[in-house]
């Protein structure tokens, strides 16, 4: 598995011949001009996960890509977008994918909770090789190989991030959703996750816009 982080929650995953892009949002940069995608997966409608200005050009540049999103976002975007509910399963080539979670984390009790579909990617031998939870703290039943963990969010305290990492206990954790803070501040969050994560979990920061083998 090869991962490329384009900032915030935008991750390009290359697994078993499939090339999948998650959450090309307005806090992410470098995904513009990507072609040859097999699929684009969006977890929810917030613009930091689905940039309304750049998403149409990305879709046009990848006419062969399958398009999947949470139900509300799929309804908003229309066209070729397919709604994925929690529990739905589909395949991107030979790569099995399962929708998980279903709801965005609570930002404030007075703010309506929207759809948020996380995605589990795997294969026949390892059905949970990668989990991208979007804006949620969904804990799966399966052991997770690689977790894209939201590191900083307005809906989350650092103690909740640590507890989430401990609950999932993946082999490798890569931080995402850091675009809401300045770069010098990431060390505060990354340091706590690295120090307080479960034994046996490798915490690995992906270099920006550079593909990295993680398994």
From TrEMBL:
Domain Metallo-beta-lactamase: 7-177
Family matches, as InterPro entries: Metallo-B-lactamas, RibonucZ/Hydroxyglut_hydro, UPF0173_UPF0282_UlaG_hydrolase
SMART domains in the cross-refs: Lactamase_B
Source organism, top-level taxon: Bacteria
Coiled coil, from the record: none
Signal sequence annotation: none
Annotated protein name in UniProt: MBL fold metallo-hydrolase
Protein source organism: Rhodococcus daqingensis
